[in-house]
Structure formats: C-alpha cells, structure tokens
User: Which sequence fits this backbone?
C-alpha cells in the first residue's frame, strides 16, 4: 500500500510560490490559505519516519513525526497564518512569499528525520529570513540584512562541518540525543546555538529584526530562534552547559532591553530573554523541564508575535520607532493598547495568561531538581521580564508622557490578527489543558494553586512598584548599547584598516625606491651603454649586445657540455 | 498643535486619577502580602515560604537589575550613529600613482 503524504514544508513552499504567479486579486486568498492547508498536512504526519528520499546519493529522511515535532510545526503554521493576516493588505507580495518560505523552512526543520535534511531547511530559513529583513527597504535594513546573513551562513558552515564530521566518523546522521564528546558534536552544538542567539553571537537578532517592515518583524520574531530551541531539544536534552548559557541569555535580554530606546529592539532583546528560559529548561532536561521548554516555545510565539504586532501597528501608524518619540497613544489606539498589554502580561507570566502556565513549569522543574541557585535566578528573571517587557514596553509606547501623536488604530486585518492572538494568550492561560494535551510527556503539573497564583502576583506587582519608583533612573536616551558584535563591527575593521594602512605605506615606499633605482638603470642603459666599446653610441650599443649574446651562447654551451 | 490644558486631557492622565491609582495599587500590593496569612505557601527551599518573600525578592532584584543596567549603561552606551563610520580600508591602488606624482 502506497500512501502519499505531502511533506508539510512542501505544501507551504508551493503555496508561497503560487502567490508570485497568481493574479494580484487571488494573492491574499492563497497567502491566507497556505498556512491552513499546511496545518492540515502537519496533523497528517504520524509518529516515526514517514517519508524518505534520495539526495546526492544519500537516503535522507524527509519527514519524521513525533509529539514535539508536531507541536512546533503546528505553532509555526499558526504563526504563519497570524502573520499573513496581519500583513496581507500592507505587505508587498514578495514579502509574503519570503515570509512563507521562511516559515516553510522552520516546518521542514521541525520534521527533519536526519541532520542532512535539517541542515538543508536550516539554510533555507537563513536565506528567506534575510529577504524578509531586506524587505525593510532602507539602507539600514540592507546593511543589517547583510550582517544577519553573514552570521547565519557562518553558523550554517559550522553546523555543516559538524554534520559532515558526524557522517564520516560515526556513519550516522540520525537526529538523536548527542553528547559533547567529539569535535563534531561540539560544532553541531555551536551551529545550533548561533541560531538560538546564544552568547557571544546574539547581537544579530536585535540588530536585524527592528530594521524589517512593521509586518516583517512579526514573522521574524517566531521562527529562527524557536527552530534552534527544537534542535537543542532533540539533540542536546539535559546538557548541563545549556543551563548556564540560558541564564546568561535571560539576564542579557533583560539588561539590554532596559538600556534600549527602540521599541522593537526592546522586544528583540526580550526574545533572547525568553529563549533563554527554554534553553535553561532543556539544560535541566527532566520530563517536566522538557515539557516546559516546548510549552514555553508554543506560548512565547503567540505572545511575542502579538507584541510585535502591536509595535508594528504603532510603527505603521506613526512611522516612529523610538520610545522617546512615542507615548500617550492609548487615547486614539485603544485596541492596540489593550492587545499589546495582554501580550505584555502574557510574557510576564501573569496568572490567567499563557506565559503563566508554561513558564512556571520551567521554574518548578528547577525546584524539583533541587537546583537552588538556578531557581532563585529564574524567579528574579521572571520579575525582570515584567520590568523590561511587561511594563516598560506598554508604558513607554502607550502611556507615559503625551507625545501629541493621535494616530487611529491600524487597518482591520491588523486589528483582527491582534485580537485573535490576544484571545490565544488568554485562552491558553485559562484552559491550560489545550496546551498540555499537545506536550510530548504526560503532564501532572497543576499551575493554578492558590499559593502559586498569590506568590506570582506578589512577585510581579512588586516588580511593577520597582519600575515606577525607579522610573527617573530609566530616562530614555538616543543611544545604542555595545555588544559582542563590537568585535566584528568596530574592532575587526579597525584592525584590518590599520594593517591595510601600514601595507599601503610600505607599498608606496617600495614603489618609490624601485622607481628611483629603475630610472637610474634605464638612464645608464640609454645614455652610457657603449662607452667601454666605442665613443659613438650606436656602435657601442651593437658591441654591448653582441657581448651579451656571445656570453649567453658560451653559457649555454658550457651547460650543454657539462651534462 | 497646542497641548490641551491638563483638566481637558484624558481622565486617565489627570493628576487626581493618578493619585487614586497609586492608592489602589498600594492597597493591592498590601493585600497580596496580607493574603499570605490565610493562604499558606508551599515553598521548595524554606525561605520562599516567608510572608512577603516574593514581594521583597521581586522588588529588590528589580532594583538590582535596574541599577546594574544603569551602571553598565555608562560603559556600553554609545551615540545612535556609532556604527555609521566610513570604511577604514585604504583607497584603490590606482590612487597610489597620483600620490607619486605629487
């Protein structure tokens, strides 16, 4: 019996390409239908290896299903639908195509049965996410897109070398849990972590995402880092190093977001922060922690997309992106304010929002494993999330001082997308069973106990108090904050410039000496060559060259005779 | 476009409303701590069962993070155009000839 199942990623690629060739009137329809059709194919994928193909002489596993893979692919497809709904009337068609191809890459990685397929879709994502950044259309977007592409192609090469090494040394490129006992595994680890925005290569995220269009940012917020989370989930569960990398990301995100002025850059830093929670959970590696990481990826994609939508709506309506130029928008953008605030509450894990039911799984996993220090760090980080994303973003954009801007709420399709995702944030928070049913391990975790709700409220509300008390310390400045990318954006060019400058000086000095010597020699040849043979120049010339020829013939004869 | 006088502004930003909001916020804060008298907290490590532990811990860690960010800002903050610098590579080699002639 042959059962033909279209790989979900291919369904999305076909849809994305159809947008380009279809009549303009049909494009929105195709763009909206593609993620839904893809979602249907995602749910048709059963457990285990479903489809193989031959690629460059290798038998590759194109589609492999499991609970966690379906979970990630599902949220990627939902995200693609929400993004298209937010964007389809405002974006150019090629931005929608690029965004859907980018999403297709993410879905392809989700179902990749071996490292080779994973790598192919990995690069596919890098390619089309760069196009989405470029769709920003400004010089800054072009430059940021190039930097973004360089980082991801560099990460891709590291990943590829690791995979090839694995293929040569073990003969297997199965996606199974690896241990960091060989260079190959380390290279795969590093390659995946670069896409997760792990230190020190994390600056690409906050560099590139805010340069996209108001719509493009919504797509960018979802796929790259979360596919990296899935890859870590499948390849390195329980790797203790990930705990510390994750904690660094968590606090890096908070601190840099506190220093930032650009509203979408604040949200970008908070992506790193949230992915840090997932990476930490994968490092803890118990069933509860791994469930927590998968659940948090699911809820995070929804509320972070919602936050990027509300910021995108503000940017679309005002053309302004700096918090110092915004404020007071709640008067004329009530819906955007409410939806943005719901997203902000969800990211802060407020009770009855989606973040609460996923993030508390991670901190409970740390507590159950008696990881005292890590638990205290995670709790502090939860307060810090409320500080930098939960209050800072909505406060500075929608409230604070009156900027005098009076833009209306965005067009209807943007409003509907925001409302749907806001409902998603609350529905998952109120009915956690919806999410828990999709998780890879059975869930015994009960998020809503009186004391848990109470302690979480205490934590968050007093974090809020700290925000308002310390508001004078957080004066907005029109600055950027140095990151590790200083090394390759300033130090490396300066070093190369210095070397190049020295080399140029040396070249000029050499030229000067050579010209001087050369011109002396030419002067000698032209004016005084024959003075040893004749007083008349032509005669002297002839005699000189005769002597030279004679010498050469003699030399050749001697060489010949010697052999 | 001139700014409206404050009493004509949105009710939410009038000083009287803000004073009220601070009172309400303060009351809620006090209530969340007081409620711990009636809802026993099952902690993991002992300290987290203390009354008001999360309140104090949340507040103090946030102060620490803001102060740390502020201090780090003195070191890391740069003007927004910091990375917009011209290339430091030397001009084309063809320029060298011009240099020689001068």
Assistant:
């Amino acid at each position: 019996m042959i059962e033909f199942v279209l790989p979900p990623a291919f369904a999305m690629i076909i849809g994305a390409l159809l947008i380009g060739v279809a009549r303009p009137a049909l494009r929105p329809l195709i763009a909206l239908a593609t993620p839904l059709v893809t979602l249907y194919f995602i749910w048709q994928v059963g457990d285990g290896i479903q489809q193989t193909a031959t690629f460059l002489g290798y038998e590759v596993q194109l589609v492999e299903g499991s609970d966690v893979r379906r979970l990630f692919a599902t949220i990627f497809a939902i995200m693609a639908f929400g993004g298209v709904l937010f964007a389809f009337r405002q974006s150019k068609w090629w931005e929608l195509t690029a965004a859907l191809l980018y999403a297709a890459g993410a879905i392809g990685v989700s179902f990749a049965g071996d490292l080779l397929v994973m790598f192919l879709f990995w690069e596919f994502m890098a390619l089309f996410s760069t196009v989405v950044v470029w769709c920003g259309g400004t010089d800054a977007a072009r430059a940021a897109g190039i930097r973004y592409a360089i980082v991801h192609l560099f990460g891709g090469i590291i990943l590829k070398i690791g995979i090839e090494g694995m293929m040569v040394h073990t003969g297997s490129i199965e996606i199974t849990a690896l241990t960091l006992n060989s260079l190959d595994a380390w290279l795969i680890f590093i390659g995946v972590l670069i896409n997760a925005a792990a230190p020190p290569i994390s600056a690409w995220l906050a560099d590139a995402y805010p340069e996209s269009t108001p719509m493009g940012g919504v797509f960018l917020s979802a796929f790259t880092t979360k596919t990296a989370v899935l890859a870590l989930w499948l390849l390195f569960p329980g790797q203790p190093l990930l705990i510390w990398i994750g904690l660094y990301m968590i606090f890096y995100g908070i601190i840099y977001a506190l220093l930032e002025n650009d509203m979408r850059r604040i949200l970008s830093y908070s992506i790193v922060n949230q992915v840090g929670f997932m990476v930490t959970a994968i490092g803890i590696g118990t069933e509860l922690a791994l469930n927590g990481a998968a659940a948090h990826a699911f809820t995070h994609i929804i509320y972070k997309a919602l936050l990027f939508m509300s910021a995108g709506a503000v940017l679309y309506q005002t053309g302004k992106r700096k918090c110092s130029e915004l404020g007071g928008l709640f008067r004329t953008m009530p819906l955007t304010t409410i939806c943005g605030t719901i997203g902000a509450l969800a990211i802060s894990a407020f009770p009855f929002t989606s973040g609460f039911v996923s993030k508390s799984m991670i901190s409970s996993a740390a507590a159950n494993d008696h990881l005292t220090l890590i638990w205290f760090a995670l709790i502090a980080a939860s307060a810090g999330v409320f500080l930098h994303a939960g209050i800072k973003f909505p406060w500075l954009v929608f409230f604070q001082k009156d900027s005098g801007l009076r833009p209306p709420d965005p067009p209807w399709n943007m409003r509907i997308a925001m409302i749907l995702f806001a409902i998603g944030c609350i529905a998952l928070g109120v009915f956690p069973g919806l999410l828990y049913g999709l998780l890879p391990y059975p869930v015994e975790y009960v998020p809503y106990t009186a004391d848990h709700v109470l302690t979480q409220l205490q934590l968050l509300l007093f974090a809020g108090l700290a925000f308002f008390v310390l508001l004078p310390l957080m004066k907005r400045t029109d600055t950027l904050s140095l990151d590790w990318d200083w090394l390759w954006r300033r130090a490396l060019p300066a070093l190369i410039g210095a070397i190049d400058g020295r080399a140029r000086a040396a070249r000029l000095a050499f030229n000067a000496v050579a010209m001087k010597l050369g011109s002396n020699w030419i002067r000698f040849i032209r004016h005084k060559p024959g003075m040893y043979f004749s007083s008349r120049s032509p005669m002297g010339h002839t005699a000189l060259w005769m002597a030279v020829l004679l010498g050469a013939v003699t030399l050749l004869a001697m060489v010949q005779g010697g052999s | 476009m001139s700014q409206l006088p404050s009493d004509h502004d949105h009710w939410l930003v009038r000083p009287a409303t803000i004073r009220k909001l601070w009172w309400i916020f303060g009351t809620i804060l006090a209530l969340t701590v007081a409620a711990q008298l009636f809802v026993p907290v099952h902690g993991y490590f002992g300290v987290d069962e203390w009354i008001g532990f999360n309140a104090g811990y949340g507040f103090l860690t946030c102060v620490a993070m803001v102060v740390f960010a502020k201090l780090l800002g003195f070191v890391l903050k740069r003007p927004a155009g910091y990375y917009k610098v011209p290339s430091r590579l030397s001009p084309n080699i063809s320029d060298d000839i011009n240099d020689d002639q001068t």
